[in-house]
Amino acid sequence: MSTAKASVLAVDDNATIRRAIAMRLGAKGYHVVTAESGRKALAELDAHEFDLMLLDLQMPEMSGNEVLKQVRNRYSDSQLPVIVLAASDDKKDIARTLELGANDYVVKPGELPILLARINTLLSLRKTTRRLCEQESTINRVLKIFPNGTPIRSAEPANPPRIDGTWQFQATNTLDRRFNDLYDNTPMICFTLNRNLEVLFANRFGIQYLGYLPTEIRSRSLLEFYAESDQNLAEDYLNGALSQPDRLHRWEIRRLKRNGTTIWMRETARVINSGADTLILMTSEDIDDTYTLAEKLTFNSTHDELTGLANRKTLEARLSRVIESAHSEHTLAIIDIDQFKIINDTCGHAAGDELLKQTARILTQVVRKRDTIARIGGDEFGVLFEDCPLAQATATAEAIREALTSFQFEWQSSAHRISASVGLVSIDQRCDGVASALSMADMACYAAKDAGRSRTHVYHPENVCVLAKQGEMRWAMRINNALRENRFELSPQSIAPITNFEQAGDHYEILIRMRDEDGKLVLPGEFLQAAERYNLATNIDRWVIKHTLEWLSSNARIFERLHSSGINLSGQSFGDTDILRFITEQLDHYAPGLADKICFEVTETAAVSDIVQAKRFISALKDRGCSFALDDFGSGFSSFTYLKNLPVDFLKIDGSFVREVARDSVDLAMVRSINEIGHVMGKRTIAEFVEDEAILGILGQIGVDYAQGYAIGRPQSIVEFTLC
Q1: Per-residue pLDDT tens over the stretch 643-671
Q2: 532 pLDDT tier (thresholds 50, 70, 90)
């Protein structure tokens, strides 16, 4: 059936899912009608004809299974194929739904290629079935008129037809031949079995598709043509069909071809009684491509695409299993590549990827096959040693560390030495879950790195480094709770012009504070390090961006007076395409012209880590009207080298130089140089940590444009600032 003409009814109570299905299937040429409930779906079926139905299982008022029962009371599975979409992958749920008459079952969130393949298969089968039914109907009409060459009459017609008996038999034989030809060439494998499961008939297409000769098929048990490991399962399916002859039976199983290969088949069976004989009519369709794709997607969902190792999800699942059944000793290790960032930054991401792949190969050579090796993120690997005491696992971890230390990574004629830090923890009664085990192994790895790297460290709760790490982890939990409970606060700090007084408007930088569980104010110095380490900085950035834009757009007086509001971006956010998309969405959502008043501040360290990506990120937001400031400028040893390549508008001179300009001639020279070079490049300068009038006076003398610090004003709460 041409997809351009195929009409699909999509039933789901979730509006987002309905829109997604309509959009994606519509793009493939299907005509899609949506219904938000079972009752609406049944009403659509009363009003229109559809070629296929997509049915959500979990719906209020009327469940998908209830809808399916009513659909099957009206339509056979060939008249209206139904694919059920459900979140559950429980085998009992799947079996129950198929028993009620679903043609297929797809677990959400499904992959579009798999869903399309299954839709196309069912539509093709529906078309073939309808054609067969039409041919069979024609044959039955003729055979009803001419059984054995004798006309059937319900009443004697006025002018009975005079038809030669020979012609009658020829007509019947011609139709038989046409039917047999249609049966033999139907693009589907068809079998007729007796109750002993022996093949009585098979169509030519099916025999050839499996690679056999007709004599090799007929009169043999059909079980011989299944994969050996599936023969008992096939026998159960077929005997189940014989025990319930009033139902249509479906299953998916591997069929054996003559060349020894196996293919996945979707089989449909129906039992009929023909006189004294009980027959099983079967059709089989090749779904091997769908299974191959599904297996690939399943593999990808449990494995790391780059290294081919298990991924974090798989490691956590296996770790959960051994924790729940901890009848023997197990050990978990976390391995961190010490030099990865240096190689990744200096040689490029391709080199970093190759290093990870070669590291994975070394790990598989050292670790036992029974153990699980996983890439759990970035340059971190995890190893679960099952049935392995801590002492034995520690010896293996040392072997891993030594193998990596002796390994020389070569890239584009350059050789690099690497090393690894390894943390281990015994899976015992102290591990009250997966998160606990991973946390303890991570703390041990942190302790190994803190002790000088290229070391192996076993977790001990009393270790000082471990205690420090635990403190960071507690902060990470507190940060997450504060984000969830909206306990962060904006705190603007004013920035004043020193030399350019005629420039109208307020200038300030938006800082952030956190309220703890008791309502006490927490300064960022206490939690930002933990936020960076546990990848929470971007979440904080999102909170600040959204609430700053919301505050500015909802306060007309603040908005009108504003010249520039600085918003800090962490190193994790800077250059990230997701945060870039988020910023543009937020700018579009709030007041027009707001982008012109926003200045994003990024640290010099973050900006120079990837110049190309930094320029792309900055340019994208400058095109929207935003400006950029390079924060803590002068703290890096290559500051001036990179400056000419970064399209920033402001240089914020590192406060470590500014605070001593009144007493230290070297710091004064540094500030003067940064200011002069910034001006030559057309950039304005802002001095940080301006704490008194003496510093402010010197900055004015050397021509710095703006000042920020206690001499100008302390950070205020958003309420205080709004009331000013």
Answers
A1: 777 889 999 998 888 988 998 888 899 89
A2: confident
Q: Which domain holds residue 596?
A: 477-723
- What would the two tokens of residue 248 be? 């249509």
In a domain, 556, yes or no: yes
Question: 671 and 644 in one domain?
Answer: yes
Distance between CA atoms of residues 31 and 111, nearest Å: 20
Residue 138 lies in a domain: no
pTM higher than 0.85, yes or no?
no
| Residue-by-residue DSSP string for 330-353 | EEEEEEEETTHHHHHHHH-HHHHH
In the chain, how long is the greatest CA-to-CA distance? 128
CA-only gyration radius of the chain, Å? 36
Q: DSSP characters for 472-510?
A: HHHHHHHHHHHHHTT-EEEEEEE-EESS-TT--SEEEEE
- Exposure string of 64-85, with b = 16+ CB inside 10 Å and e = fewer, is bbebbeebbeebebbebbbbbb
Last residue of a domain, one of 410, 429, 461: 461
Q: What is the DSSP string of 93-156?
A: HHHHHHHTT-SEEEESSPPHHHHHHHHHHHHHHHHHHHHHHHHHHHHHHHHHH-GGG----SS-
Could you give the number of structural domains in the chain? 5
Torsion of the alpha carbons at 513, 517, 520 and 526, rounded to the nearest 10: -50
Whether 316 is covered by a domain: the verdict is no
- Give the tens place of pLDDT for each residue, 410-428: 988 888 888 999 999 998 7
CA atoms of 232 and 378, how far apart (whole Å):
45
Could you give the angle at the alpha carbon of 224 between the alpha carbons of 223 and 228, nearest 5°? 90
Q: Are residues 220 and 247 in the same domain?
A: yes
Q: Is residue 390 part of a domain?
A: yes
